[in-house]
């Protein structure tokens, strides 16, 4: 079975066995079967547990050997000593894909290491594949499928995350995940294979990686280098400190290695390295919603002078420059502005807005900036009520616009954003410009490599 | 009138004239009178406008000269050419405090500079004081008073902010402001004076400054150095870039100056310098809700191995060390944990939680850490539902605990936080540890200076 077929079994099974299904239900019960029903999984579910006959209206099978012969995937959560038996019986029953959620393997002790080696050997002999152990497995919002305990929000976004911790699947990130794969101890299926799969996955446009430790680093980098020419690949390497390296070893059983070495390798492969989960989400959002950014000249539209000053600090920090507006742009709305404060860049529109109507001045100013060829990208500064105005204005344009939303980040933000449908918002100018810089750098690299392939062809 | 009396007029007027009151009402009308009524201001309000007789049930005065003789404060928002006349008539009517909201002064052009000099001269002659011009003035949640257009959330928190932009009063910050003073162009009342006032203000425990430019830097630093020995003083200097320096000049008419010079001076004065608005809010929150932190040894309680790894990265970055737990602590809950994963620091409690009950294991682990003398501070990693559990556990203790809250920051966060009443939460380990580091550094400095004063006394 090639990796595409295997990954399809992991991410889009038509039938799944839940081996070691719990009888507890309700909040805090970590019941995968209940979760699958709740998110509307359309395939067949076969719970396995010798101590009960049915759960939530489903027949429970007493053992793996009694399962039907057409199971695509087994999700395994029995005690660690029992896992080798389940994998053995499963492969004999024709199962080719296993997600092992159970922990206590290579990350734990010598016995765990031996058990992990054992399950790999059993699977290899039957050409079956394993994700995990010590993993929450997968989420696929396009297929209403998850092997995790938690209920994912089903958003069919073309963003895939490959990680080494279940926390990333549902807990950490603020961005809309369409697919998530937690590799856990990574005893078999690894980053390079999943990357190869996602390269060709039409439901994935952006790939995010959370890496604690790598094995076969050279192969990973070769694959990553190829994939990033098609789709942006963001990477968050955790386990940078000494103490974290030790903790990571006990978390996924892999050494997280020297940070500088990783950093250099990621850069060479053309990956977009990020330092925090915030940054990962911020940049993914920009790639998801914005056109490419070819250029460095930024305009700022603001109701706040101090906001403009802070944005300028961030602008300089991320290597942008302040666009020099066309005369046409300045003159377009000059009449609304006090004579001593013409609409130069940054355009501080508060006084004009108070006098002539906030929404009108904001829209007119943004319209003029969108049509100015000297402006490559725009940073809006705005309160929540202005988001709709911005969305309406930018609908006609193909210029990257990011917005620093003023006000308490948190209070009703998500619902207001969903209301307006305008997504490219950030809680600070630093985060807005950081995301824009990543977009600019990737756009430049892509443009360069298409030029190169063009010149090779000619 | 000394600065205390003047500042009382600005922040707690018993009667206020709104000169240039607008007749528009409702959303987007920037009506200060309406705003004062909405927030429940208890003093007398005297709108001034020659073109109307009443507004919102209040008598409107045709001119400043017809005002009663007992007005504490005038909020001025007439066209800039008229401002000198208002200040002159006002001082003659006995008004000793003016907030000038109108812009177009020193930040604008030569005429504006001259007008600004003129109002200063008029006020000085009558020993009256001016905040502004080009300022939104003040907010005082303890007195239900605001000269701003916007409706502040009235939270009587002992945090005061002094800034040079109205955006800070209500728009930028995520923290609960009790008092806010926007100095705008700072033609008269300045940072040093407001700091002196806040030093003795019993309603203020923490002071935050947003500075674009300083005048009389030496005097400011002398005062700041004294005040920070009583109360933590956080400072955000904006206008760091070349372009921002130019923009700040046109924003508040003051030169923002070289960043390195400011930085060195702030450090010498013992101020806590922050780089972003996020950081300002994060650190203020820690000072507001946590006891002092004397020590460097941190324990981590987590449901996620990867979360622990990321927290360790942040821990090292901010100069903390991982606490070595007492044997007593490790043994207290060992029975719940798998033999290969005892509750050492970081305590990864997920497996134990799944087996024995999440809330029970979380509480028991946190209790043990709170009692461990080898632990100076604790970082909790937790989903929203666990916040109540954490709050209950730490109620008995006087140890600083910060929490990295997993999950989508934004969605209902504020209301959930208010529900639990537990405030010291952060959206990432980096932000949690950064705040804790500021608390540690200030605590150490305070301890050192009390030691010094003790040794001086003996």
Q: Beta-strand percentage of chain A?
A: 15-25%
Give the name of the CATH architecture of the largest domain in chain A: 3-Layer(aba) Sandwich
Helix content of chain A: 40-55%
Biggest sheet statistics of chain A = 7 strands, mixed
The rounded distance between the terminal residues' Cα atoms of chain A is 39 Å
| Average pLDDT level of chain A | 89
Q: Report strand order across the widest sheet of chain A.
A: 9-8-11-10-12-13-14
Overall shape of chain A: it is elongated
**What name is given to the CATH topology of the largest domain in chain A?**
Rossmann fold
Largest interface: A-B, 76 and 77 residues
Number of domains of chain A: 2
What is the total tally of β strands of chain A? 20
Any overview of this molecule?
2 copies of one chain form a homodimer. In chain A, the strands form 4 sheets. In chain A, strands 9-8-11-10-12-13-14 form a 7-stranded mixed sheet, with helices on both faces. In chain A, strands 15, 16, 17, 18, 19 and 20 form a 6-stranded parallel sheet that branches. A 5-stranded parallel sheet of chain A has the order 2-1-5-6-7, with helices on both faces. In chain A, helix 16 (413-420) links the parallel strand 19 and strand 20. The first copy, chain A, has 17 helices and 20 strands. The first copy, chain A, has helices spanning 3-11, 32-38, 83-92, 110-125, 166-170, 191-200, 217-227, 242-252, 259-269, 277-289, 305-317, 327-332, 350-356, 358-370, 387-394, 413-420, 429-457; strands spanning 15-19, 44-48, 54-55, 58-59, 73-76, 97-100, 129-131, 137-140, 145-146, 159-163, 179-182, 206-211, 233-237, 272-274, 297-302, 321-322, 347-348, 377-382, 401-405, 425-426. Helix content of chain A is 41%, strand content 17%. Chain A starts with a helix and ends with a helix. In chain A, 55% of the residues are buried. In chain A, helix 10 packs across helix 17, helix 11 packs across helix 17 (429-457) and helix 13 (350-356) crosses helix 14. Chain A has 458 residues and is of the alpha/beta class. The first copy, chain A, has 2 domains: 3-285, Rossmann fold (3-Layer(aba) Sandwich); 292-444, Succinyl-CoA synthetase domains (Rossmann fold, 3-Layer(aba) Sandwich). The model of chain A has no long low-confidence stretch (mean pLDDT 89). At the A-B interface, helix 5, helix 8, helix 11 and helix 16 of A face helix 5, helix 8, helix 11 and helix 16 of B.
């Amino acid at each position: 079975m090639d990796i595409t077929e295997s990954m399809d079994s992991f991410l889009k099974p038509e039938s799944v066995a839940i081996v070691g299904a719990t009888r507890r239900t309700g909040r805090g019960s970590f019941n995968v079967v209940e979760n699958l029903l709740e998110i509307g999984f359309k395939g067949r579910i076969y719970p396995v547990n010798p101590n009960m006959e049915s759960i939530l209206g489903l027949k429970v099978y007493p053992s793996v050997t009694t399962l039907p012969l057409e199971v695509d995937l087994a999700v395994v959560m029995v005690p660690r000593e029992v896992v080798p038996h389940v994998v053995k019986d499963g492969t004999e029953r024709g199962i080719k894909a296993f997600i092992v959620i159970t922990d206590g393997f290579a990350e734990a002790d010598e016995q765990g290491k031996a058990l992990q080696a054992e399950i790999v050997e059993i699977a290899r002999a039957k050409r079956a594949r394993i994700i995990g152990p010590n993993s929450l497995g997968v989420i696929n919002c396009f297929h209403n499928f998850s092997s995790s305990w938690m209920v994912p929000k089903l958003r069919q976004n073309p963003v895939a995350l490959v990680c080494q911790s279940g926390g990333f699947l549902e807990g950490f990130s603020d961005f809309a995940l369409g697919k998530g794969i937690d590799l856990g101890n990574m005893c078999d299926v690894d980053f390079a294979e999943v990357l190869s799969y996602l390269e060709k996955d039409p439901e994935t446009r952006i790939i995010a990686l959370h890496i604690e430790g790598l094995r076969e680093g050279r192969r990973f980098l070769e694959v990553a280098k190829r994939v990033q020419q098609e789709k942006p690949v963001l990477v968050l390497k955790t386990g940078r400190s000494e103490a974290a390296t030790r903790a990571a070893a006990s978390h996924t059983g892999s050494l997280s290695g020297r940070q500088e070495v990783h950093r250099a390798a990621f850069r060479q492969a053309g990956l977009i390295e990020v330092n925090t989960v915030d940054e990962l989400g911020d940049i993914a959002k920009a790639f998801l919603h914005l056109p490419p950014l070819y250029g460095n000249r930024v305009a700022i539209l603001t109701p706040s002078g101090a906001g403009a000053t802070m944005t300028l600090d961030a602008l300089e920090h991320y290597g942008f420059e302040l666009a020099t507006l066309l005369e046409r742009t300045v003159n377009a709305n000059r009449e609304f502005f006090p004579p001593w404060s013409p609409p130069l860049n940054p355009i501080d529109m508060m006084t004009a807005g108070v006098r002539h109507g906030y929404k009108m001045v904001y829209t007119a100013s943004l319209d003029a900036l969108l049509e100015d060829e000297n402006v490559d990208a725009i940073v809006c500064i705005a309160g929540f009520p202005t988001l709709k105005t911005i969305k309406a204005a930018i609908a006609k344009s193909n210029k990257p616009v990011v917005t620093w939303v003023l006000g308490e980040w948190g209070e009703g933000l998500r619902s207001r954003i969903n209301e307006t449908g305008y997504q490219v918002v950030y809680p600070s100018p630093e985060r807005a410009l950081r995301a824009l810089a990543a977009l600019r750098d990737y756009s430049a690299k892509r443009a360069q490599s298409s030029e190169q392939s063009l010149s090779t062809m000619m």
